[in-house]
Write a structure and sequence with these properties.
This protein is of the alpha/beta class and 354 residues long. Helix content is 27%, strand content 25%. The chain is built from 11 helices and 16 strands. Helix 4 (160-173) crosses helix 5 (190-201) and helix 7 packs parallel to helix 8 (260-266). The chain is globular, with a radius of gyration of 21 Å.
Length: 354
């Protein structure tokens, strides 16, 4: 796909008749450097579909890329998650037809089983290794999409590929959650809220942490059974053990090195910690004697595959779970959406609507 600078649109009127609006991030990144641009549209080839993008959602991974935390060496259209409508279908496509609603995959090439070479890493993640979805239209392999839950809006569907699927894999696929289990979720971001919802769907008890009493009350309204303000209770791992008597079955660990020590304390003997986030940084000092003594299963994971997404969507349709949408922004205000995310005032997902 050839990028066309917005600063050179006037002499290219004929070309722009077949072009679409996009947001472009220059090499090195930076929120202030996100700028409107245009990209050329193209017809789908064999096995491909063209999708009119109607909504995207913002993830912490997107923020790290756009803010320059993981500097890019080439220009990039950001955002990994999108939902929209099929407008054209290439030869050999059987799963989708023009007019179908679709939602993207975080890993477009990881379809089933454990990740193999080139799967399950960021080299082929939209908005990072390849062009993302902050644009009006995209043409890509049909296998890079699924249908969304029946009755979902495009904004709701766009929240699923990263945050929801991460929570689903952590608790259902890898955690084998069952009724009566106890789950610890950290904060009020997208992954944590979805984890709370999936845990309640499975009949589990949920302990939620936050630094804000107001946010804790929101989490209670979503079904959280116990609330801990980690600012007023910094030793929240011990508080979790006091509440449960033995620790939790599952920890959805989104903080990383800054919260891992307390998560180790909070987990029961033989418990499961899904290590999925790095909100407190990439490295830190953690004593793992608790992991050894308590026979903990600590599993790092990044989102999930296409089969996981299909199974999650079937469960969502059965349970009636709806995403928690904090706020939506127009595409031109994408940088403001990331600033809202960085401020940490949101509960649930922040989205872009086109």
């Amino acid at each position: 796909m050839r990028l066309v600078s917005a600063a050179h649109t006037i002499p290219l009127v004929r070309e722009l008749q077949m072009s679409i609006k996009a947001m472009l991030l220059p090499p090195g990144g930076g929120l202030d450097k996100l700028a409107p641009s245009v990209v050329e549209s193209r017809a789908p080839g064999p096995g491909e579909i063209t999708v009119r993008v109607h909504a995207c959602s913002l993830n912490y991974h997107d923020y790290v890329v756009v803010s320059g935390g993981w500097p890019l060496t080439t220009p990039r259209i950001p955002l990994s998650d999108a939902a929209g409508v099929v407008t054209a279908v290439g030869d050999g496509v059987e799963d989708f037809a023009v007019g179908d609603s679709v939602v993207s995959l975080f890993f477009p090439d990881w379809h089933d089983g454990p990740p193999g070479p080139g799967q399950g890493n960021f080299a082929r993640v939209p908005g990072d290794g390849i062009e993302g979805y902050a644009r009006e239209e995209v043409t890509a392999p049909a296998s890079a999409f699924t249908k969304p839950p029946c009755g979902y809006s495009h904004v709701e569907a766009a929240t699923l590929p990263c945050a929801a699927l991460t929570a689903w894999r952590a608790l259902v696929v890898e955690g084998n959650i069952k009724p009566g289990d106890t789950v610890l979720v950290q904060g009020s971001g997208g992954v944590s809220v979805f984890a709370l919802q999936f845990a309640k769907m499975a009949g589990a008890n949920v302990i939620a942490t936050s630094s804000s009493d107001e946010k804790l009350q929101r989490l209670k309204s979503f079904g959280a059974d116990h609330l801990i303000n980690y600012r007023s209770t910094p030793a929240w791992g011990a508080e979790v053990r006091r509440l449960t008597g033995h620790g939790v079955d599952h920890v959805v660990e989104v903080g990383g090195p800054g919260t891992m020590e307390q998560s180790l304390m909070a987990a029961r003997v033989g418990g499961h910690i899904a290590l999925i986030g790095i909100l407190t940084g990439l490295a830190g000092e953690v004593s793992f004697i608790q992991a050894l003594a308590k026979h903990l299963r600590i599993q790092g994971m990044i989102v999930g595959n296409r089969r996981h997404q299909l199974e999650m969507i079937r469960a969502i349709e059965t349970s009636g779970i709806r995403p928690v949408i904090d706020r939506t922004f127009p595409l031109d205000e994408l940088a403001d959406g990331f600033r809202h995310q960085a401020a940490g005032r949101h509960v649930g997902k922040i989205c872009v609507e086109l």
